[in-house]
Amino acid sequence: MGKKHKEKVRLGGMALPNGVLVHGPNAWACAIRNEEGRIEVASAKKRFRATRVNSPFLRGPLRLAEALALLPQLKAKLPAAELPMENPRTVVSMLGAAVVVRGLRESKLSPLVRELLSAVVSIAPAVLTLRSGELAAYHGAEHISIGTYEHGKRATKEHERCGGHLVGPLVVTSAVGNSLAALAPEHRRRQAQAVAQLGAIAAATELFGWMTRHPSHPLAQALSKPGHELQHRFSTAEPTAAQLEVAEAALAACLKLEHELAA
Q: Fewest CB atoms within 10 Å of the CB: 61, 92, 160, 166?
């Protein structure tokens, strides 16, 4: 049991407008700063886990589904937690991006250029959301707390496993997948596009995993560059001591429950 406690738990996280969510293989915890200035913490065992799925085609989409499945559970246990998608600005930007993407796909641009531009436009709502309010600072606090735990020394606000690093691979795989889907017969095109999007997520996730295992490879560095710049310039900010305290509370609660479940 002592040995298990010394092993590093592989963690992920999500920044919220008023706090941080941290999750491990079996559990999650969230800490927020409420309107009175106090820290509220909630934690629970995961109801849905995708860690045991080894199929390359399925594990990427299922891990994304695992993270999204936490949100209803989080809101039930910690109602004061604010989710990024609850912001009206986010909804408006998503609708605007959808209109622009539809226009691009009906344009006379070459298929590959059209799909590359569509993929870039599709991530714009996420970038705008991360720049709103305190979200970028809590994103930085999430990275610093998890990175410091993993590396044993003070980490920076950029993290090598941040979902932002999926931007490069996802732009490429989405462009290729949708270009191929456009070749399908008209009456099958919608189904082909749906399969292409699922395939793009699966391929991008696998490519991202390869990038984390081979960080010095030129291709890995090229594909991670957009995500690093996104983190550095837009999606993260240096947190205050109070925001870092919230992230560390979420981290501690998640690790405590992970160790209890492993005992």
A: 92
Q: Give residue-wise pLDDT tens across range 202-214.
A: 888 888 888 888 8
101: in domain: yes
Looking at the fold, whether 194 and 226 belong to one and the same domain comes out as yes
**Backbone φ/ψ region at 12: left (φ over 0), alpha (ψ -120 to 50), beta:** beta
Domain total of the chain? 2
pLDDT at residue number 4: 44
Could you give the C-alpha distances from 116 to 103, 168, 185, 191, 192, in angstroms and in order? 13, 11, 21, 20, 17
153 in a domain, yes or no? no
> For strand 27-33 and strand 39-45, is the pairing parallel, antiparallel, or unpaired?
antiparallel
- Contact assessment for residue 154 and residue 145, using Cβ atoms and an 8 Å cutoff: no
Q: Are both 74 and 13 inside the same structural domain?
A: yes
